[in-house]
Amino acid sequence: MSNEVVYKSNALIQACYRLSVQEQRIILSAISQVRRDCTPTDEVMYSVSAQTLSELTGSSVKHTYQEIKKAALRLKRREIWIKENPNGEGLKANTMVTGWVQTISYIDSEGRVELRFNKDILPYLTELQSQFTSYRLKNVIQMTSSYGIRFYELLIQWKGKQLLELEIEWLKEAFQIQDSYPRISDFKKWVLEPALKDINNNSDLQVSYTQRKTGRKITHLIFKIKSQKVSKKDKEAKAPVHSPDLPPITKPEPNRSERTKSAKDVALKALEQMKLGLTDA
């Protein structure tokens, strides 16, 4: 999965939905297989292999397959609320509520699932001419926070902008957590900070943030976005392994009494050798 690219309409990225990490991995793995230059069709089944995902997550193939089977079924039941048309064609006359996929198929003998996208979703994945975002799948596939993936997609849209301001209430609506985390401290602890940690450790972005108040209430987050060629995790994996530095091994210096005794022994030995020399003469 090092070269697969995800293409999404910005309208889809900004839509309102909620997916778990495993559901995100499945849907993004499938999206990376969609041909952006082809006419939309819902006849194609896209395959997601437990073997491939297990190599990235470190879990066994058997465990991973059981997880994606359950996640795929949940994905079939998920809703997505879309307010805009693809290709920058503006707001829809009515908000569209649809599903991600219409068919799930389990190939137990091969440890993989196949899925067919919902017809309503395909225009947001294919024949994209403007206002779409692309990124390499490897930048999100190892994330462990579903919010990390969502934040990454929102931020990568504005990669060249460097600073991006987002309203907290808008974020909560997009993530479908309007009724959760009423305190900003909880939102930061459970949503924002794990997400940014995931992004900084696993992706090609380095992100920090500040906040803005409206009156006495924190209402907006201002993100500073930088590119990093290699993720923090990749840097650590490629770094040479060093054994811990050990102090130099030195011979203990003799104490004063030992030095005196040693000098006396040398003098006595020299005197004895002199006596032997005189006797031989």
Automatic annotation (TrEMBL):
<feature type="compositionally biased region" description="Basic and acidic residues">
    <location>
        <begin position="253"/>
        <end position="265"/>
    </location>
</feature>
<dbReference type="Pfam" id="PF21205">
    <property type="entry name" value="Rep3_C"/>
</dbReference>
<comment type="similarity">
    <text>Belongs to the initiator RepB protein family.</text>
</comment>
<dbReference type="InterPro" id="IPR036390">
    <property type="entry name" value="WH_DNA-bd_sf"/>
</dbReference>
<protein>
    <submittedName>
        <fullName>Replication initiation protein</fullName>
    </submittedName>
</protein>
<dbReference type="InterPro" id="IPR036388">
    <property type="entry name" value="WH-like_DNA-bd_sf"/>
</dbReference>
<dbReference type="InterPro" id="IPR000525">
    <property type="entry name" value="Initiator_Rep_WH1"/>
</dbReference>
<feature type="domain" description="Initiator Rep protein WH1">
    <location>
        <begin position="6"/>
        <end position="155"/>
    </location>
</feature>
<dbReference type="Pfam" id="PF01051">
    <property type="entry name" value="Rep3_N"/>
</dbReference>
<feature type="region of interest" description="Disordered">
    <location>
        <begin position="231"/>
        <end position="265"/>
    </location>
</feature>
<dbReference type="GO" id="GO:0006270">
    <property type="term" value="P:DNA replication initiation"/>
</dbReference>
<dbReference type="GO" id="GO:0003887">
    <property type="term" value="F:DNA-directed DNA polymerase activity"/>
</dbReference>
